[in-house]
Amino acid sequence: LQELKDTHLSPYFGSIEAGVQTIMASFNSWNGVKAHGNEFLLRDMLKRNLGFTGLVVGDWNGHAQVDGCSPVQCDQAVEAGVDIMMLSKRDWKGYLQNTTSSAKKGSITAEKIDDSVTRILTVKALYGAMTTPALRAAGIKERAPPSQRPGAGHLSVLEAAEHRETAREAVQKSLVMLKNGVKGATGKPIPLSTTGKYLVAGRCADNIGLQNGGWTKDWQGSANYPNHLFGSKSESIYEGIKKATERGGSATLHQIREGEIPDLNSYDGVIFCTGESPYSEYLGDRHWPASME
After folding, report:
1. Radius of gyration of the chain from Cα atoms?
2. What is the side-by-side strand order in the sheet with 269-272?
3. Which candidate in 9, 55, 167, 213 could, as Cys together with 278 as Cys, close a disulfide (CB 3.0–4.6 Å)?
4. Which residue has the higher pLDDT, 247 or 262?
């Protein structure tokens, strides 16, 4: 319990205090119990002890991983504190029928149904997705549907200059430098000079698919997508370096092939770009102990 408080709960204190209204149960387990069916985590700790008043939404078919459950039935997840289940399009009818039957039989308590409904309606009301005279009197305005809001349908807002600048700032502030130069050396290689001559190499140097990873062009992402599929404003690492050095410097892309080694002495530096193949969710899981492959 102390490890849970010290290590895992710290982000929730500030988030709940700031008014966050939705939290998602994940596929992880605590003490062998899946989060979707873990009453201790969702009801006791999150909702009662931490005072979370919003709603808990399940992850995609995550309830089906709870012991004794299936994609179309999981009373345990409802009772544990999941307020909205995320279902596949083939399972929602069966889940609705089974959950309704469980509620009628008392396997799912009326108390839990009332709590979930209250939470869902409260979040909708605070967000402005619905309105009542009482809400209007409290100054909570109903929002227009997403299709009617400013910017809806305008693709020009994607990759806007201010968004790209924010993304650039986020990268600059989150990168971790492991080492900058050799101990005892007279200079540091970073920051690089824009007038330097650089060799840019590695499989990630000119591959935007590898830069983006999963959940971009598709679920798992791919290293095989050509760069032009990511839009005219997208830049690979090599393209960015080339642009940064075009006034007085240079960047040369080198696709490494067996037996081919360029003359490194003719460059001020080598920028080698490597990384994992793209993936998302459980298809990127690695089991310990794992090999470097």
Report:
1. 26
2. 250-254, 197-201, 269-272
3. 213
4. 247
Length of the chain, in residues: 293
How deeply is 41 buried, as exposed, middle or buried, from its count of CB atoms within 10 A (0-12, 13-18, 19+)? buried
Q: What digits encode the pLDDT tens for the residues 184-224? A: 777 788 889 999 999 999 999 999 999 988 998 889 999 99
User: In which residue are the tokens 């596929």 written?
Assistant: 27
Structure tokens at 42: 């969702």
pTM of the model: 0.72
Which whole-number Å values give the CA distances from 95 to 70, 72, 85, 110, in the listed order? 9, 4, 9, 18
The span from the CA of 214 to the CA of 277, in Å, is 9
| pLDDT reading at 79 higher than 90 | yes
pLDDT value at residue 259: 67
